[in-house]
Design brief:
125 residues; 4-stranded antiparallel β-sheet; two-stranded antiparallel ribbon; 2 helices
């Protein structure tokens, strides 16, 4: 494999890890400093698969927003006062247990694996 391609892959994964880290850090600060928002759960799509997470559609500030959730079992259609937080800077609503930490670990694992490509002997490149 060409070293330029390996470097490009490492840079892309590094950027991905940085974005996920910033989002995770931001969510943790918002959860500590703010109380959950009061919103209305309009629709629930709990049929998650390996590619799609369960989604909940909520009404907040006269806007309908789609929020990925980890588990629909504790949610019900109607008024909700404890499960969602709002990020004003990014204009984004997130679930109390968004699962972004798990995504960070997965992307870190992929990054470490991609570093192994640097160990391929020169005669194989």
């Amino acid at each position: 494999m060409n070293k330029k391609i390996i470097l490009f892959i490492n840079i892309i994964i590094s950027v991905l890890i940085s974005v996920i880290s910033l989002l995770y850090y931001r969510e943790e600060i918002i959860k500590k400093q703010n109380s959950p928002i009061v919103c209305s759960v309009v629709q629930m799509d709990c049929a998650g698969s390996s590619r799609n997470h369960p989604k909940v559609y909520i009404q907040y500030n006269q806007k309908r927003k789609s929020v990925d959730v980890t588990n629909c079992n504790t949610l019900k259609v109607g008024l909700n006062k404890k499960d969602f937080f709002y990020d004003k800077l990014l204009d984004r609503v997130f679930y109390i247990n968004s699962g972004i930490k798990k995504g960070w670990f997965v992307s870190l694992g992929v990054f470490v694996f991609s570093l192994l490509f640097w160990m391929i002997p020169k005669n194989r490149l």
